[in-house]
Amino acid sequence: MVDLAFTLDAAGSRTQLTLPITTAVIAGWTGRDPVARDHHIAELEAIGIARPASTPIYYRVAAARLATAPAIEVSGGDSSGEVEFVLIGHQGRILVGVGSDHTDRKVEAYGVTVSKQMCDKPVAPELWDFGDVEPHWDRIVLRSFATIGGTRVLYQEGTLDAMLPARELIARGFGGGALPDGTALFGGTFAAKGGIRPASRFEFEIDDPVLGRIIRHGYDVLELPILG
């Protein structure tokens, strides 16, 4: 379990919350369009990662891997981030945020479940109420930027109409329309522009063009040496 501090922006007011996260789940292969989904599968196959056993698929990771810190430490230079929307169950409500499923790609080539556990999962310290955004969910934009070789580039971008609807994702993974309290669910990602590659810094955001607000977060990636 981990306790994370958030600011909840809902119904025109901002409230400070500390949420106990007891369960963390990374949903994969959540594309609504099978062509786009298969493109991402092919993208990972190109770097040696096997096709998933099912689509979507739900990987469990330790809740303690979630963090809002401005930097993470990783082993070696084979990891990279992925922007994803994050749903959190709290007192019967669904809260919406954004995070990065930072993953060790070398490990992913022989064990996806193990690779998910190798790196911290950064999340932005701000949330929205799902009820405020559900009517225009498909118009919400996910976007990420990576600093590679000293240059900041657009790494990922797409609207949520490309992903399985949030309630369908919850229903498939948890057998109903409610997300259990204390559960954080990462909702899947988009293909990387120019291919998957490591970065010294990764920034990500969720953009609501209807209500005119954005949640942003970023983190430095600090490589630890591999000596043997």
In brief:
The protein is built from 5 helices and 17 strands. With 228 residues, it is an alpha+beta fold.
Name the helicity range: 10-25%
Biggest sheet strand order reads: 2-1-12-9-8-15-3-4
What is the assigned CATH homologous superfamily? Fumarylacetoacetase-like, C-terminal domain
H-E string? EEEHEEEEEEEHHEEHEEHEEE
Organism: Rhodopseudomonas palustris (strain ATCC BAA-98 / CGA009)
Protein name: DUF2848 domain-containing protein
GO molecular function, one term: catalytic activity
InterPro entries: DUF2848 (IPR021269), Fumarylacetoacetase_C_sf (IPR036663)
Description:
This protein has 228 residues and is of the alpha+beta class. The protein has a single domain, classed as Fumarylacetoacetate hydrolase, domain 2. Helix content is 15%, strand content 45%. It contains five helices and 17 strands. The strands form four sheets. The chain has an eight-stranded mixed sheet with strand order 2-1-12-9-8-15-3-4. The protein has a five-stranded mixed sheet with strand order 6-17-16-13-14, with no helix packed on it. The longest helix is centred in the first third of the chain and has 12 residues. The protein is globular and about 50 Å long. The mean pLDDT is 94. Pfam families: DUF2848. It comes from Rhodopseudomonas palustris (strain ATCC BAA-98 / CGA009).
